[in-house]
Write a structure and sequence with these properties.
- There is one protein chain.
- With 173 residues, the chain is an alpha+beta fold.
- It has a single domain, classed as L,D-transpeptidase catalytic domain-like (Beta Barrel).
- The protein contains four helices and eight strands; from the N terminus they run αβββββαβαβαβ.
- It has an eight-stranded mixed β-sheet.
- The longest helix has 11 residues.
- It is globular, with a radius of gyration of 14 Å.
């Protein structure tokens, strides 16, 4: 496998098989490798047929997953108020305009993330996600558990994924 292909792809594809009946679109998926530091692109758009990465972006993780602001995910949580990222498979749902502008709702498909809708875990843009910040601080900012992208890139992420596709978030041990 080429070096830029995240090892979590096999895990993500297995999750797509498991949740296939709930996921209408099977052509591409998002894979978030929380094993990587936040200063590196770790949200991958993957072509399901080939397993190849089409595009990658910086993405934030939750404050509760990285309490010491190291840029590395230490833990996951599905609990409301945890401000942590959750692992597992998500279904991309509808878009709306909220506190962070255009955002896309996510439905958690696993017991590790089935509170995503109640916790308002979504895709949104945030000023604390940028290449400049990653270079200057060695990490990007943290969300409250959402998948936050650079404001200039979030629409592209949402458009390329669309509604009805799967995102898989995980971390290699």
């Amino acid at each position: 496998m080429p070096q830029d292909v995240p090892p979590l792809i096999a895990e993500a594809l297995a999750a797509l098989d498991t949740h296939g009946a709930q996921v209408p679109m099977h052509d591409k998926i998002g894979v978030v490798d929380f094993s990587l530091p936040s200063r590196q692109p770790r949200f991958f758009l993957v072509d399901v047929a080939t397993g190849q990465v089409e595009r990658s972006w910086l993405v934030a993780h939750g404050k509760g997953s990285d309490p010491n602001a190291t840029g590395m995910v230490q833990r996951f949580s599905n609990q409301p108020g945890s401000n942590a990222s959750s692992r597992g498979a998500y279904l991309t749902a509808n878009t709306y305009v909220g506190e962070h502008g255009l955002s896309r709702r996510l439905i958690g498909l696993d017991s590790d993330n089935n509170m995503a809708m109640n916790r308002a875990i979504v895709i949104h843009g945030a000023d604390y996600v940028s290449e400049t910040m990653a270079e200057r601080q060695g990490r990007i900012g943290r969300s409250q558990g959402c998948f936050a992208f650079a404001p200039g890139e979030v629409r592209q992420v949402m458009d390329m994924l669309g509604e009805g596709r799967m995102i898989y978030a995980g971390k290699l041990t």
